[in-house]
Amino acid sequence: MATLKKYDLSGQQVGEVQVQDTLAEAQASGQTIKEYIVALRANLRQWSANTKDRSEVSHSTKKPHRQKGLGRARQGSLAAPQFKGGGVVFGPKPKFNQHVRINRRERRAATRALIGEKIRDGKMLVLTPAEMAEPKTKTVASFIKSAGLSGRVLFLLEGNYVEVALADEKKSVSVRSSDHQNFRQSVTNLPKAETALVCNTNGYDLLKANHLVVTEPALAELEKWLAEG
User: Fold this and answer.
1) Which tens digit of pLDDT belongs to each residue from 96-130?
2) d(Cα 125, Cα 119) in Å, to the nearest integer?
3) Distances from the Cα of 92 to the Cαs of 41, 51, 88, 95, 165, in angstroms?
4) 3-class SS at 202?
């Protein structure tokens, strides 16, 4: 099994953590990862931009000036696009739902492969539970420097779940939690550092990050989630 270095919040290595081979050795085709990232980016678009053409703008239908005798080009209406306040030519219009469906199995395979790549490149490490008594950006900045992290850093935190009974079966549902509020506030002021819950992890954030820092509980949650296939 592969091992990851384990650090405390002061930036000192305090041990190692073993990772399942299914995660450390995970790979996926470049086309699968590309389609997943493109779908994520496409689904962020709102498709709500709207412009008015000359038939929709509010203007008088009276001609700006008479047709002949002035030596000027003929003009039919101030709603024409060449006038200020006129209609827009070929402007964007709201489109139907452009959502791109992402297959769950492909999404997990791409996520697993991106994390496996981080493990093999030595760009993923484990952090002891990230609990802070108060927000302190200097503490997190010192940790990043002491651990030798560079570029964009993504911190993955564990979520808080409750069991809910639905149709004769129990399901685990993520609920809002303030467990890592101080830590998240400490990271907010760092320009190249971000935090995310495991349940909200997506491939685009993993792809952008140069280093991945995972808390111990989050690593266990991540392995359980990605092991489902």
Assistant:
1) 778 888 888 999 999 999 999 999 999 999 998 76
2) 8
3) 19, 6, 9, 9, 46
4) coil
Residues contacting residue 115 through CB under 8 Å, at least 6 positions apart: 23, 26, 124, 206, 212, 222, 226
Q: 34 and 58 share a domain? A: no
- Domain span at residue 167 reads 2-42+101-226
CATH number of the domain enclosing 168: 3.40.1370.10
Residue written as tokens 């911190």?
A: 155
Neighbour-count burial for 198-221, b at 16+ CB within 10 Å, e otherwise: bbebbbbbbeebebbbbbeebbeb
d(CA 130, CA 127): 7
- Specify the residue for token string 């493990």: 119
Q: Do 110 and 79 share a structural domain?
A: no
Over residues 62-72, the pLDDT tens digits come to 899 999 999 99
